[in-house]
Every structure is written in C-alpha cells, then in structure tokens.
Model the fold of this input.
Amino acid sequence: MHDHVDLVDEHSYDRRRLRQFLAGDARADGVDRRVLLKLLAAAGGAAAFGAAGAAPASASASASATVAAAAGIVKPLPPELFTVRGTNAESKVASWQGKGFHTPVDRFFVRNHTSTPVLDADSWSLKVWGSGLRGGRAAEFGLDDLRRLPAVTTDALVECAGNGRSYFTSQQGESVTGTTWGLGAIGSARWRGVRLGDVLKRAGIARDAVDVQPRGLDADYVTADGANLGRVRRPLPVAKALGDVLLAYEMNGEPLPHDHGHPVRVLVPSWVGIASIKWVGDIEVSDVPLYSPWNTDFYRLFGAAYPPGGTEPLTRQPVRSTFELAAGAEFAAGETHTLTGRSWSGKGGIASVEVSTDGGATWTRARLRDPARAHNWVRWSARWRPVRGGETELLARATDTRGNRQPERTVHNTQGYLFDAVVRHPVTVVA
Ligand SMILES: Nc1nc2c(c(=O)[nH]1)N[C@H]1C(S)=C(S)[C@@H](COP(=O)(O)O)O[C@H]1N2
Ligand SMILES: [Mo]
Done:
C-alpha cells in the first residue's frame, strides 16, 4: 500500500479532488455542476475549466422518501429525555447527569435525514465495489463475515456538525439554516466492530484508490424544494478510510440499535457526524475523486467570512461544553450546589474547563472527572453557593490538549455548523 498519509487532511486533499475534476476525472452524481464550479472558483481553478455546458443534477421528487410529520424514529422518545426536532431527536443534556461516561441508548440523540429503516441483520449484506478495487471486481460481506474479522473496540463521540446551531440565533442574532439544535446533538458510546481498512483490503483495494464512499440504506433524501439528492453518502479520503474508521455492529455492548444504524454503521471518531454513515449498504471505492451533496453543498462553511465556494469539507469537530442542566433550572440561594457538565473536542482531549456563575465576570476552574482522551469528553463539576435571588447565567469554557479554546463568538456560517462559542446558560436563583 503506498503512502496516503498526506491525504488525511481534507484541506490538501480537497484541492487534489478539484484538480482531478478539472481534468474531467471525477465522479459527482447528484451534485449540481454549478456547485462544483463554485468550489473550483474558490480553489482558483474556474478559469482553467472555462464555461462548459451545465449538466444539471436530476431534481425529480421521489415519492418513496416522503418525510413523516412525526419523527420516523423507532425507539421511544419520552419528553424528559428528548426534544423532537422534525425527523431528529435531541438528547436533553440534563438527562446525562449521573448517567455515566457513555450515553445510554435510551437518551442518545438521533439525526435522520428521512426515517429509520428497520433492517434484518441476517439478510443484510455490504457490497464493496468500484474502480478503486483491483480488477474492478466487487466484493460482498454478510454480518457473519464481518464478525469473523478481528474485532476492535473504540470509545468515541458521535456529534452532529450542527450541534449548538440555535445559539447562532439566540446568542449572536444571526440567521442560519438547519435543525435548531441546542447542545444535545451528541452522544458517547463504546463501539465494537471491524476496521473499515481490513474490509477494504479484503475487498482488494487498489493502490490508486483515492475515495471511499459509504452509502446508507435509508430512503432517498428529498430537500424541501423537492430535489432528490439520493441516498445519504459522503466520500472519505482513502487515507482516512484506512485509518481509525470502524464498521461498527455493537454500541455499548449491544447489537447496534435500529436508530443508530442497525446492523452496521460507519464510525469516524472525532469527525462531523455525517461521516458516520448509518445502515451502510454499499461502499464505493474509486480511483477518481467522488462528490456527493454531503461534501459540496453541505458540510462546508459558507458565508461572508469564507470563500465563495465554501471551505474544504468539514472533518474534525471544535471544542464545546455544556452544563447538564435544563434552561431556566432553579437553585436555592444560601446553599452549596454541585454544577456538573461535559466538555469535548474533535482535535484532542480536554485539558481544562473554567466555569463562571456571574455571567462571565469571574471564572473558576472546574474539577475534571475523567482523563483527557482524544475522541471522548470529560465530565466536570464545580461548586456554587449563590447568595442572592434572581436571574443569572452560567458559562463553561474548555481548552483542549492542543490549546484550542472556546471563543466568545463563533464566526457566522450560513448553515450554522461548528458553533463553538461559550454558551450562556440561564438559571434562576430562588431566595
Ligand atoms: N444513512 C444515514 N447515515 C447517517 C445519517 C442519515 O440520515 N442517514 N445522518 C448522519 C448525521 S447528520 C449524523 S449527525 C449522525 C447521527 O448519528 P445518530 O443518529 O446515531 O446519533 O449520523 C449520520 N449518518
Ligand atoms: Mo449531523
């Protein structure tokens, strides 16, 4: 296998994808050519491409993928554990208190583009196919085939890139599109499965493979404007696919639950949740770069502060923190309370957390309850003895082991991704 390491970083890799597209050498099913032209312009390549005729993506609305009015989620969504947001369910951060390091499945958030397909593990199979396999020969794996490969266990978070999105509006007065998450679009689990790399090697991945695109078995995603974007899929650079990525079949010691990708999902530690394709049914291995709506229109940063074609595709998550409290929680004055919360980063472990109970005027160090570990959060606690009654705001800000620290404000992007600013959590002190 030749050295793919330089391609792990999407920033440099994306430039290469675009160069290959310029050479007429990339596959971009379902991606509007104008979108790619915008990306090329951002990368300084549009002039070379010229004004070639547009080949618009098909935009036929598919009846097979009508989004249910209620969430198409299998597990119960009791209101003390979840806030339902369209086809998604946000975990209530207050429900994490005292519930351990890993998030129990009964309160793990669900992000579905359409609805949960209920798949039968016995008849499920994974097809690996494409020009990036030796001889172009496809390979098929059943769940038993995967279970016969060496099993790997990884503790990791899955988090939506849009986690915290609602604070762009409520704290910064900015408008963004997408699900209006608080900070509960995250969960931590112990995942067990096989290395995607082991499967790709068994399938005969060729030296010249560049992209690996898992695709879900859930219904086609049809946008609000009626454009059918096809099934949820997003390419991974081959170097990443051969790295720490799992095909997971267990979550917290149980078979993967339906809502989280039963029987098998991709798990890409520390990357934006969209990389961790659920209900994976096939994986295209390609010797030319691949594009999907999920690495072109979505999951790049667009906006005034960014290039016209957006940034490179999003990969690692930023630093975030939350208290394990409901908004407006009440505390008795004159008593000592233990505030608890969690902080995490996609770029390293968490090194320190500071808490303010006076709206950000003064800060004290929280006590960390877990060691700093990549791909995982730390639980923390801080004592608080409020004196007077009234409204106040609690703030928590974390710094990761790479020195990344939560800012006061996140630079706006139109789709509200990667909100990492310190969140102001309103509470009431009762005298
Ligand atoms: N097939 C498929 N995979 C998917 C999605 C989806 O809708 N369909 N949603 C993605 C997004 S945006 C996120 S944030 C995570 C959420 O994982 P969870 O529902 O297990 O919490 O799954 C990702 N994988
Ligand atoms: Mo997501």
